[in-house]
Amino acid sequence: MVLTTTMLDDTQATIQSFIISDWTHFCVGDGTTTPAASDTALDNQTFIDTIDDTDTSVSNEATVTGIVEAGENNGNDINEVGIKDGATGNLKCRKTITTITKTSDIIVYIDYTVTITMEEI
User: Fold this and answer.
1) How buried is 98 (Cβ within 10 angstroms: 0-12 exposed, 13-18 middle, 19+ buried)?
2) Local structure of 38: helix, strand or coil
3) 115-118 long-range contacts, CB within 8 A, separation 24+
4) What pTM was estimated for this model as a whole?
5) Mean pLDDT of 36-60
6) Which pLDDT tens digit goes with each residue over 49-66?
7) SS3 for 19?
8) Domain boundaries in the chain?
9) In angstroms, rounded to a whole number, what is the distance separating the alpha carbons of residues 61 and 116?
């Protein structure tokens, strides 16, 4: 059987839509252990908030953006970021980053982009 371009496009669109609707919160923390597929939480979460923006303008990508504003999470180092499906929900993604020492002079933008590639194998 050959999967048509329409089928592949529809599947990409379904995955893209699911990500945008499911990924509702972003979180940051000061943990430094290497991310693993088995992670269920950040090492040490210091802040969580709702996703500020979503973008599906590229047909095979889904991007969510979280913003740590000037008055938020000050006095904490940010070494890890994550995406969750609710304030107390499941961790969907986790990444360690170069340390950002958060002060009121700094606004942190966190963009997570998933590229969806579909092909018949």
Assistant:
1) exposed
2) coil
3) 115/60, 115/61, 116/12, 116/15, 116/16, 116/60, 116/61, 116/62, 117/60, 118/8, 118/11, 118/12, 118/60
4) 0.88
5) 95
6) 999 999 999 988 999 999
7) helix
8) 5-115
9) 6
